[in-house]
Amino acid sequence: xxxxxxxxxxxxxxxxxxxxxxxxxxxxxxxxxxxxxxxxxxxxxxxxxxxxxxxxxxxxxxxxxxxxxxxxxxxxxxxxxxxxxxxxxxxxxxxxxxxxxxxxxxxxxxxxxxxxxxxxxxxxxxxxxxxxxxxxxxxxxxxxxxxxxxxxxxxxxxxxxxxxxxxxxxxxxxxxxxxxxxxxxxxxxxxxxxxxxxxxxxxxxxxxxxxxxxxxxxxxxxxxxxxxxxxxxxxxxxxxxxxxxxxxxxxxxxxxxxxxxxxxxxxxxxxxxxxxxxxxxxxxxxxxxxxxxxxxxxxxxxxxxxxxxxxxxxxxxxxxxxxxxxxxxxxxxxxxxxxxxxxxxxxxxxxxxxxxxxxxxxxxxxxxxxxxxxxxxxxxxxxxxxxxxxxxxxxxxxxxxxxxxxxxxxxxxxxxxxxxxxxxxxxxxxxxxxxxxxxxxxxxxxxxxxxxxxxxxxxxxxxxxxxxxxxxxxxxxxxxxxxxxxxxxxxxxxxxxxxxxxxxxxxxxxxxxx
Amino acid sequence: xxxxxxxxxxxxxxxxxxxxxxxxxxxxxxxxxxxxxxxxxxxxxxxxxxxxxxxxxxxxxxxxxxxxxxxxxxxxxxxxxxxxxxxxxxxxxxxxxxxxxxxxxxxxxxxxxxxxxxxxxxxxxxxxxxxxxxxxxxxxxxxxxxxxxxxxxxxxxxxxxxxxxxxxxxxxxxxxxxxxxxxxxxxxxxxxxxxxxxxxxxxxxxxxxxxxxxxxxxxxxxxxxxxxxxxxxxxxxxxxxxxxxxxxxxxxxxxxxxxxxxxxxxxxxxxxxxxxxxxxxxxxxxxxxxxxxxxxxxxxxxxxxxxxxxxxxxxxxxxxxxxxxxxxxxxxxxxxxxxxxxxxxxxxxxxxxxxxxxxxxxxxxxxxxxxxxxxxxxxxxxxxxxxxxxxxxxxxxx
Lengths: 514, 398
Known about the structure:
Chain A is mostly helical. Chain A has helices at residues 28-31, 51-54, 64-67, 79-83, 99-106, 119-128, 175-189, 204-212, 217-239, 241-244, 247-254, 269-287, 295-345, 349-425, 431-511, and strands at 133-143, 150-159, 168-174. Chain B has a domain at 16-164: Phox-like domain (PX Domain, 2-Layer Sandwich).
């Protein structure tokens, strides 16, 4: 049965390869009604609830069984499903990759991948198939009119990795698709300790302007900001070795058709639910007092708090720089015009010409400042904005660890209570009911003991994952920053070099005044 | 107590006024004191002229004394045909003072180093304003001393020599009111003058030119000022960025620490260069435009005075005609008319000379300043390139 291929992640059980004739899907349509949510608890990542969605993965499979899945938005399933909108496909865990989903893709050579049972080995394997993928988001195109209009972006993937069917392909996606992807990944991976890159932020104001059709500089800037942010988002996501292999990610990049993720809308019921959950989480976080036994975690948490603060401050300063540089550009342009008028008014010929030349130089310089402001924005400022959000995700992962700990502790407390109850039972004087009660309690205790063990395992697992993730994140962060800062500095160099050219061209004009 | 040494002054003498090299009367302001709002200038004179009591002496003067001198010259009829050098503007420390106040309010939000650096920037700005005002007062006096007629003015001599407080001689309230009234009449004159029929082509051209040029240069001055302010804002942003990078660096214990250090240092240096770009632009461009704006106003004033003289002459003509008609007081009317004409002719002749040399002066000053500004911009940009490229190379090699 395929179920065994999907053991809950914390269990370090073996799994086996899917044999050819095996049912690739555990009859999704049959299981949907009783779908267990792939809940936030680490215990049970059941793929059952997610059955319906897997099929669009196989565009060539046209069995009715799968076709109806696209309509399934599980309105009557437990609330968890509502948040999953069109249901994420099974999570890729380090222990048990959803072989059933991957097999058709990978085909012949990479069977070995399925026998791996540890994160490390998957990483090693990964280095064999070296990380070579480049995603670009381009050609923003307005589709439709009025308030129902939206922007469609072309997502082009160029890769030599065998994970993908082709080497060079493109699809059309809209913003809510990206949000949908993120929401799926977040629901699968955040609570087990993976740092899932956050999606770019929604902007009702920005989007409304675009919808209404305002073709001005600010709406162009908005679209460009978004396009660039989406590109960075995807690249960050695929850089994560585990996320790259997630079927939702692959589907997002490859499938021509993607069902609309309606539940990502801010004002949908799911959106409101999300906000409520967020608030509840915040309250819970304040009430959880965890006994941190691991100094590493304490130190890292402090480190990220601090980083958060500093990056926010830096971001604010850079935003101010962008604003001032734009002002400089505008003021320079105005001065250029004024100098031109002055030159016209000047009756000394040579001086008049020099003033006109000055006006021209200043006009070129204002364009230079405008371009520099753009570099300030798109390179420096946006980078910082991304990292402020990323750090948010990191903090979220730490919070999940606390929650996991809490759950474990709760189970333990419950177990303790039951044990006390059991002890008390010894002293009741209703012998006939005693045995029955004793049996009941024994059962409960056994179950709870299992839960406590599971809780401890979950906690250890998430702690381990976080350690790995944090080290990967930090490495990536340093690399990312360095690369972009170098680019940004080079843009500054270019601006200054242009300035030199312009002023050197002007100098002889000034000297020519007689 | 702030003093300015010779080399600084040489640099500061940006607004060239084509001073002649006549060393018979040398004036400078070697020292100035700033107390609250009041600036006390030490006016130092070195002279070989016998009209002065001593060959080398200094007196303390306030801004109001300069204004008194200027107004006294303007009101002297004999100088009606001259361009009176524009009065120096009042020392204005409002901008840096406001910023200092805001900085104090925002002190809590920044690190100690950030605050110190911002304070340093503001103190530098304060100093720059101070230097500017000293320079502009000095230039005023130097223009007077190099003018063949004005240098001999009695009030000028008193200003330079009189070792008591000049406020006794300064306008009392009544006079000030009179001055104010005069200014009001002058603006009415402007309207009057624009309408007058000009017989002389030269003056017709000058009038058109000066009126137009004045409004254009006023606009350019304002726009140049805004540009300079933006540069200063950017320099401030660099301070904040540098400080935050510094904080990040302090927290970092990885090899990345060195990179952050370099970056923080880079921004600190960039902001210094940016600050200099701003101040040089201000000195060479904004101040140039501002000075000549005021100078053009002075030239306009000359035209107005000439136009008034023309009106007077025309009125005297009318009066003569009337007298002839009535056969009464004819010799007085004739004399009056003759005098008016003489005054007008003298004024026109003098004005022509002044306006011609004014143009020459202006062209020379613009040339000098534009060249210097371009050279400084190049220098700063090259500096920036070196700093940035150095940092990029260091980061890449790390």
